[in-house]
């Protein structure tokens, strides 16, 4: 999602890898490794892939705020509030923690997780039944660049093979975790990338919602308590 400054039409827009995109601004806040062009392209791909995903919890929250005519900051705040927690945005952090523990022995990590009766973080999806196309795009993009922790991609592939035996699949959270760990990013980096990506999507949802009649989201409650 490039974001270059406005320039006169007769001049060429500068395209410095360190100043011309959201990815370039975000990278140094996540890791001390150099922001090379291939790495920024990878991060930008992640931001684009995760920008929007239909009416997810964060998108609904953002649209509710916009429907009540909340301003842009309120809209984004509502989206971030819904994103928090282990079943939405926090799932990327769980995937990052799991993948970190699995880098040296993915098979044992998967088996131990299953033995505890837990699902492997970064696998499956509420919408997708057989594959997460976003994960496939990011896996391909990661394979096209070098550098970083060489254990990450083989570990992800081993995990993908193991969960496929039970008709499961790795999702975009696992690939965000892979980006974070491969390039020595800070804890919660995967979730941060996810949140920054979604902000642009929520802004688009808000623009649409501002064009609708206000207060569209007004469900009616049904009392289910005791009656005298």
Automatic annotation (TrEMBL):
<keyword id="KW-0808">Transferase</keyword>
<dbReference type="GO" id="GO:0005829">
    <property type="term" value="C:cytosol"/>
</dbReference>
<dbReference type="Pfam" id="PF00285">
    <property type="entry name" value="Citrate_synt"/>
</dbReference>
<dbReference type="InterPro" id="IPR036969">
    <property type="entry name" value="Citrate_synthase_sf"/>
</dbReference>
<dbReference type="InterPro" id="IPR016143">
    <property type="entry name" value="Citrate_synth-like_sm_a-sub"/>
</dbReference>
<dbReference type="GO" id="GO:0036440">
    <property type="term" value="F:citrate synthase activity"/>
</dbReference>
<comment type="pathway">
    <text>Carbohydrate metabolism; tricarboxylic acid cycle.</text>
</comment>
<protein>
    <recommendedName>
        <fullName>citrate synthase (unknown stereospecificity)</fullName>
        <ecNumber>2.3.3.16</ecNumber>
    </recommendedName>
</protein>
<dbReference type="InterPro" id="IPR002020">
    <property type="entry name" value="Citrate_synthase"/>
</dbReference>
<comment type="similarity">
    <text>Belongs to the citrate synthase family.</text>
</comment>
<dbReference type="GO" id="GO:0005975">
    <property type="term" value="P:carbohydrate metabolic process"/>
</dbReference>
<dbReference type="GO" id="GO:0006099">
    <property type="term" value="P:tricarboxylic acid cycle"/>
</dbReference>
<dbReference type="InterPro" id="IPR016142">
    <property type="entry name" value="Citrate_synth-like_lrg_a-sub"/>
</dbReference>
